[in-house]
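Reviewer comment 2.1 asked that we show a complete input and output for one of the modelled complexes. We chose the beta-D-glucopyranose case, as it is the one discussed in the main text.
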Amino acid sequence: MNKYNVYIIILIVVFIFSACQFKKEEKKKSNSYETTIQTKSISLKFDSKIDSIISLMTLEEKVAMLHGNSMFTSSGVERLGIPELKMTDGPLGIREELHRDSWAALGSTNDFATFFPAGGGLSATWNSELAEIYGKSIGAEARARNKDILLAPAINIVRTPLCGRTFEYFSEDPFLNKSMAVPYIKGVQSQDVGVCVKHFAVNNQETNRGTVDVLMSERTLREIYLPAFKAAVINANAYTVMGAYNKFRGDYLCENKYLLNTILRDEWDFKGIVISDWAAVHSTVKSLKNGLDIEMGTITDFDNYYLAKPLLDSLAAGKIDKQTIDKKVKRILRVMYNLKSIDSTGRAKGSINTKGHLTNAYKIASESIILLKNSENILPINTSKINSITVIGDNATRKHAAGGFGAGVKTKTEITPLEGLKNSLPKEIEINYAQGYKEIYEDDDKSKTYGRKISNKIDTALIDEAVQAAKKSDITVIFAGSNRSVESEATDRENLNLPFGQDELIKKVTEVNPNTIVVIIAAAPFNLKEVEKSTSALLWSWFNGSEAGNALADVIIGKVNPSGKLPWTIPVNLSDSPAHATNSFPGSETVEYKEGILVGYRWFDTKNIKPLYPFGYGLSYTNFEYSNLKTDKQEYSMDEIIKVEFILKNTGTKDGKEIAQLYVSAPESTVVKATKELKGFKKVFVKKGNAKTVTISIPAKELAYYNENKKQWVVEPGTYIIKLGTSSKNIKSNVTINIK
Ligand code: BGC
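Response of the prediction step:
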């Protein structure tokens, strides 16, 4: 062989090696929910050290680690250098410090935290990078407050628009849900804080949440309710999972062998800890055997928790063996070592209330705001053409960091919409304010912060005052919607009505001033039929964090071009929504999810029901045009990646971001399928007048359905139609592929 041949061979080897590497990288990035953070699986490298520690522990010390010893900690073993495991709520920001043995606030002065947008808002950004930034920021705040476990994200599927916790949850769609959950979790855990993904599982209503037995087909469970939890465990390596309050197929979730042992441990190979929701445990032996590791509670009789003294008694009676206890303790210590909470060398220190976190909260809030209607192009306000503005609405001045039942955040900064407008508008513009409506409940019990019956009474004097104020100014902005008492944990809403006479207020104000913008601040679907008729300019914002008002004002004046899209469907009528159309909400002892896999837009599309605003919908101040949709091939095998490509052009007059969505239909399927299912999306920034070539990858395995007979995910061979749309309803073009 001459020298020349040797060079050629080396070149070929290098080429093949690089091509393989490239393919591997491509495979890694093939899901849109992959992130820049390397997945850190729970390392087993401490296991032998842990075994020797366990051998030094007494049975009492071990059992002490398996239950709460205060409202938000479980015991350590001081003599062996094991600290307590410190937990904190939760989705909106790091909760203020409470007494160890009561729910009362400690009243500290050093427990302020950044208020981050609630789950619905984050999800409406459809921006996985922002989900990672969110996770990193809230994780850093948890660390700065010396916490180990963040009781978040809350990723239950939005099954009914009435669910009181819709504001915390991400979406009605399993793909969007996991696409936001994975980067969020990786972000948090990159800060040496573990997430507690909640509430596992099928906890989709607050009515009877402590007792209701949830029933559904296996396919529905696998395709709709579990994918985000599965991705949290497998793709993001979530360190802990929270067992929910309700039952599934007859067994409470914290003692549910099928979900905790069969699926979570055996199928998904979960190495972390299962922590109960607070007071969600109902047994000692059954919970322990069926997968629970730590019991947390709401009462302060810590020694009598099921996994405290009753567990010692069960051990003494031989009802449970010591190896089971050791297994649980080992899992806890493993998580603690991974979080560097035992040997804290090199543990992230975190940071809290920083300018950077406020900037991140602002970025998330400003990308979450949705433009629902702008038929007369009133938005954005041209500030050089107006002299006065009337701001109306209780929500113009209301703060949402706290309220209702459950976790809130004590924050130093929460900019209200009125303050935001004052910050953004030129000083020459006169701003007037009228409250317009106020909360009126049927009972007078002001100590109750949630679950109060909303009165039909309207304060007409407030409406009159608002109408007079609206007449006098060039532009009116009404901040309407709901609040944290109307939407709250522990209760579902009774109906979709906008409370406190807001329909009438909006109608009357728009009659006297057609230059009226309505901003709905809420985090679950409401009936907007009347509002939609009254106004030509409609925005949607959320319980949107410390910078909510600044972000909203910047959208209103056009400094920010709105780019959020709905993470769920807004129906015309409640009875159009699947759980209500099938009369299967809320159930009583049991609730059967009769709509099966047809949750959210899957139902509306398949049954041809027109929603008021569809899933994935949201406008912009600019226009986008789609063209040249194609795939890299026509035929794929089941383990290949379908590369979809198209051109996105910004044909309007403003730079902007568009969320391009890929839905897939399976016309030849032999099983019932939704008309279309979201399988990919990308948020893309395009400068005005420019065009970008966009690529979105769909692994062919994402097209699988769950075959109940085979107990397997199956990709059926045949034709699939890939639909490129701006929402689930507005499809711009199709391309057909074939699966071998
Ligand atoms: C909620 C959980 C929360 C826990 C602790 C429960 O009522 O369901 O989401 O983390 O309380 O506050």
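The first strand starts at residue 68 and ends at 70. We note this here for comparison with the apo prediction described in Section 3.2.
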